[in-house]
Specification:
Layout (H helix, E strand, L loop, with lengths): L2 H12 L3 H4 L8 H9 L4 H11 L7 H9 L4 H12 L1 H18 L22 H18 L4 E4 L4 E4 L1 H21 L14 E5 L2 H17 L9 H7 L2 E3 L3 E5 L6 H20 L6 H16 L4 E3 L4 E4 L3 H14 L5 H4 L9 H14 L3 H12 L4 H9 L3 H12 L2
Parallel strand pairs: 2-3, 3-5
Antiparallel strand pairs: 1-2, 4-5, 6-7
Length: about 400
């Protein structure tokens, strides 16, 4: 016991009412609890003393009745019983472990000297959080019993079969290198391979095994999902995208072109979701995934909802055509509206608008990087956008529309 705890215990047990508490500070008897009540100690104070000293008796039905006769409420009696049989200590241990885990996963301030002033390299989470996510991913891989291996780029981890990795890993490395040329920090080093996973599974059987293992392990680790239907949506769909792990059933896609587009999209999705620390507008998370498709293949194809792919199709000309058509008809969404899109309800034309706006904004990398920084520092996306790009919404909208018309 620390000196501070010894002093606190000493003060609690011996200041005032010394005639009642001057006995040796061993486990309390039920008679001593009665004396504490006669000495006007509150129930809360007595429970704290019980936590310090323990009890010399079991809280059976007879003793529980005595405690209730002293004015202890049923919840108090239950707590005293848990203290007596050790369950309370176990509860506190679990609580401390959970608090430690949550503390480890909190975003940490950047280390001095790792980047220019005001800019953080990579995701701003602790080393402990990276390691926790990495260990969890390997637990899922092991539990899923899939024929996969682990492959790394500098910023993401690919989990796939040897055959599949030979197709997708070179593309991901090329995309990574291209983004580094186009963008400075924080986009340049966007993710950390210990906490950014692209899982590409060759068969439906492997995909379902992975989903079952993931949900089981997430549940064991106390991780919850926003939608109560998350598991059903994931197990029925061809993909599930989370801020740390994207899982795709390649057998659910009909062409090799769709498959390579999806892995590129996942790369951009992880970048955007992690860089903005969960504060990124849905339109930008999806839009930057499409931007990454364009970087590699010259056109976007992927449209998703929160848990599964909704639709694939089109090319850059087709997507731009949708935006131009809505622009000519005066039905195009405002920038404010686009930044408030929800992936769960986005329609096809809204994916096109989200991609087009993100393509426009990211065409000026310095401003785009500053916008990312502002969003993850908790500034409202639209307010930050107008401040950093130096224009009101009407003027910025005109610039975007001119960009669309090129």
């Amino acid at each position: 016991m620390s000196m501070r705890m010894l002093v606190a215990t000493f003060l609690m047990l011996f200041i005032g009412l010394s005639s009642v508490l001057a006995q040796e500070a061993g486990p309390l008897t039920i008679q001593e609890i009665g004396k504490l009540r006669l000495a006007r100690k509150t129930h809360a104070q007595i429970i704290e003393i019980i936590k310090e000293r323990g009890l010399s008796f079991e809280v059976d039905e007879s003793n529980a009745a005595v405690l209730r006769s002293m004015g202890f409420k049923p919840a108090d009696v239950e707590l005293i019983a848990r203290i007596a049989d050790g369950r309370y200590e176990q509860d506190m241990k679990k609580k401390a472990e959970e608090e430690a885990r949550l503390e480890a996963e909190k975003p940490q301030p950047p280390k001095a000297g790792t980047a220019p002033a005001g800019v953080t390299i990579g995701p701003r989470i602790s080393e402990g959080a990276h390691e926790t996510i990495a260990k969890r991913a390997m637990r899922i891989k092991e539990a899923s019993n899939t024929l996969t291996k682990v492959f790394n780029t500098e910023t993401v981890t690919l989990i796939a079969s040897e055959k599949t990795s030979k197709i997708h890993l070179p593309n991901l490395k090329k995309l990574e290198a291209d983004l580094r040329k186009r963008f400075g920090e924080p986009t340049k080093t966007g993710t950390d391979k210990r906490s950014a996973y692209i899982v590409l599974l060759d068969t439906r059987y492997e995909y379902e095994n992975w989903i079952k293992a993931m949900f089981k392990i997430y549940e064991a680790d106390g991780i919850t999902w926003q939608s109560p239907e998350a598991f059903n949506m994931a197990i029925k769909g061809p993909a599930i995208l989370t801020p740390t792990m994207t899982i795709v059933d390649l057998s659910g896609l009909t062409t090799d072109e769709q498959r390579v587009h999806y892995s590129a999209f996942c790369f951009g999705y992880l970048y955007s979701a992690q860089l903005m620390e969960g504060r990124s507008p849905d339109a930008v998370v999806n839009g930057f995934g499409n931007v990454c498709e364009v970087v590699l293949f010259g056109k976007p194809m992927i449209r998703v909802n929160s848990y599964a792919m909704r639709e694939i199709g089109g090319d850059a000309a087709a997507w731009t055509g949708v935006v131009r058509d809505r622009l000519s008809k005066g039905t195009i969404s405002s920038i404010d509206k686009i930044l408030r899109f929800s992936t769960a309800s986005m329609e096809s034309h809204e994916y096109c608008e989200a991609w087009s706006l993100t393509q426009f904004l990211s065409s000026t990398p310095d401003l785009y990087n500053r916008w990312i920084q502002a969003i993850r520092d908790k500034e409202k996306p639209l307010d930050a956008l107008l401040r950093i790009y130096g224009k009101n919404e009407a003027a910025l909208t005109k610039d975007w529309h001119r960009f669309v018309g090129k």
